[in-house]
Amino acid sequence: MTAAVAGPIVLVGAGNMGGAMLSGWLKSGIPGSSVIVIDPGPSERMMALIGDAGATYTQTAPADLKAGILFLAVKPQVMDAVLPGLKGLMGADTVVVSVAAGKTLGGMEVHLGSAAMVRAMPNTPAMIGRGITGAFANDKVSAPQRDLVHRLLKVSGPVEWVQSEADIDAVTALSGSGPAYVFYLVECMAEAGRKAGLPADLAMRLARETVAGAGELLHQSPDDASILRKNVTSPGGTTAAALSVLMAEEGMQPLFDKAIAAARKRAEELAV
Ligand SMILES: NC(=O)c1ccc[n+]([C@@H]2O[C@H](COP(=O)([O-])OP(=O)(O)OC[C@H]3O[C@@H](n4cnc5c(N)ncnc54)[C@H](OP(=O)(O)O)[C@@H]3O)[C@@H](O)[C@H]2O)c1
After folding, report:
1. Is 126 buried (19+), middle (13-18) or exposed (0-12) by CB count in 10 A?
2. Closest CA to 56 of 6, 136, 65
3. pLDDT of residue 271
């Protein structure tokens, strides 16, 4: 760890996201001995990971400990019940990092007091180290602390810092919820393939691998999505015929505008 952190990384909540982060930290060379995991009942797999890494496990916050990083990965619904029990972990240099959807910095300050805090929004592909995270730091986070948090978050993929906390709602709507839009795209493509005469299981395999392969091509290629699209669209061809529907005035763009606006509105409503 760097000089920016005065104490251990305390991970609260070792479920899907907390587990993915812990696993990424260990792979990136952060010593398990610098991590303390608090969770009332982690899975056997998680307990094995904690044990193998030499990290410390506890069901509740130790009384005599100050955290360097307090990394919150519990469900938003339990946050208000969990935070009061963590107040004792707050030292003068503790940085709080929350990945909980909809939980505002103001809402956390009610329980933890005024502190250096980061609100981050990863997404599900973090589980395979292929997520992307949007993050906002309040003005109490120093540059070295922000660098350290960046290092912790980037184990699950790239990290994009936003300038206002409100932008986290838009990040949630776009990349936080985004993987579900892509999974639904696979479902829609498969169903359209079935209606075009293919057996349902074949249509699903074709749709699934098309989206996965196109995603990997996008990941590996230096070209923009629009260039990759144009590269496979011959004038007057089959792709152009489909795109004339998808890119029509009432095609995908207005649909996505509405979908993302709805998700952003919901994120604002959930914010506490
Ligand atoms: N999964 C995602 O893709 C994703 C994406 C972006 C953000 N997030 C955020 O990440 C957070 C965690 O989500 P998740 O999917 O990882 O949920 P999860 O799998 O349910 O993990 C939450 C963990 O917290 C534990 N927990 C419950 N009460 C606790 C307490 N008092 N102290 C310590 N740990 C406690 C839970 O234990 P029990 O199971 O025993 O209750 C569970 O192991 C959420 O706030 C979510 O908004 C998740």
Report:
1. buried
2. 65
3. 78
Residues with CB under 6 A from ligand 1: 12-18, 38-42, 73-76, 78, 82, 99-101, 121-124, 176
| Residue among 109, 106, 35, 103 nearest 71 (CA) | 35
The ligand 1 atom nearest the CA atom of 38:
33
What pLDDT sits at residue 5?
Answer: 62
Within a domain: residue 169? Answer: no
Residues of the chain with pLDDT under 50: 1-3
Residue 99 domain boundaries:
9-164
Ligand 1: residue of 11, 12, 17, 47 to mutate (most ligand atoms within 8 A of CB) is 17
Q: What pTM, to 2 d.p., does this model score?
A: 0.91
- Give the pLDDT score at 3: 45
Within-domain flag for 173 = no
User: Which residue type occupies 102?
Assistant: G
Distance in angstroms (rounded) separating the CA atoms of residues 24 and 49: 11
Which residue, by CA, sits nearest to atom 40 of ligand 1? 41
Total domains in the fold of the chain: 2
Query: Does one domain contain both 104 and 200?
Result: no
Question: Among 57, 58, 70, 74, which is best to mutate for testing ligand 1, by the most ligand atoms less than 8 A from CB?
Answer: 74
Q: What is the pLDDT of residue 270?
A: 81
Q: Is there a domain that residue 170 lies in?
A: no
In a domain, 94, yes or no: yes
